[in-house]
Design a protein that fits this description.
Layout lengths: L12 E3 L4 E2 L4 E7 L3 E4 L7 E5 L2 E8 L5 E2 L2 E6 L5 E5 L9 E5 L3 E8 L2 E4 L4 E2 L10 E6 L3 E6 L13 E6 L5 E7 L11 E4 L1
Parallel strand pairs: 2-8
Antiparallel strand pairs: 1-3, 3-5, 4-6, 6-7, 6-8, 9-10, 10-13, 11-12, 11-14, 14-15, 16-17, 17-18
């Protein structure tokens, strides 16, 4: 008994969508090896557009009536962004914010709507008490993602504790005024110590 088999030497494939893309970036895919195409996203032409990341398949029928169903995994860069803070408080003079994202290329720091810096980290002390801060990261193939900053509050900084003392007018107590670090808010209430 003789068996006849038809071997398809021209199976359908999907072209395009190789490499990594920005999240939400639109990628054009093309079906090759057939004249009738049905995509899993509802498209029915030889080409379709999908946003990364995505997994798509296509039913490709060639001129012999053979159906191939290839798939294509459209991959995107990891867009998880985080920010770490180091330093004790504004009284110590430094609160350093350092962002982190995979494939980072550059950073842009914005506070109160203004571009402040393009450095990899930023000392937040000069911006204590302000709001509306964020850092914008460019990563991968010019992808952009941002994260809000936690700007430190204004603090009364008397560290190290420099002070000056004066006797009260009736000389029954000593008034000690702490001298705070430059740029900080001075304590309006002096500490009064009974003599």
């Amino acid at each position: 008994m003789q068996e006849l088999r038809f071997v398809d030497y021209n199976p359908g494939t999907i072209s395009g969508g190789n490499g990594l893309y920005c999240n939400g970036e639109v990628v054009t895919l093309t079906a090759i090896g057939g004249t009738i195409v049905s995509w899993s996203n509802g498209g029915n032409g030889t080409s379709t557009m999908v946003a990364a990341p995505n997994l798509i398949t296509a039913d490709i029928i060639n001129n012999h009536g053979c159906i191939t169903t290839p798939s294509k995994n459209i991959e995107a860069y990891n867009n998880e962004i985080s920010i770490s803070y180091s330093g004790e408080s504004i009284c110590d003079g430094t609160v350093i914010a350092t962002p982190s994202i995979e494939y980072a290329q550059s950073y842009r720091w914005f506070i109160a709507g203004n571009l402040i810096s393009t450095a990899n980290s930023l000392n937040l002390v000069p911006y204590a008490g302000l709001s509306g801060g964020y850092v914008e990261a460019t990563y991968g193939n010019n992808c952009v993602k941002s994260i809000n900053l936690s700007l430190p509050p204004n603090e009364v900084c008397c560290y190290p504790p420099e002070f000056c003392g004066n006797f009260s007018p009736n000389k029954d107590s000593l008034i000690i005024s702490f001298i705070c670090s430059p740029g900080s808010i001075r304590d309006p209430n002096s500490i009064k110590v009974d003599c």
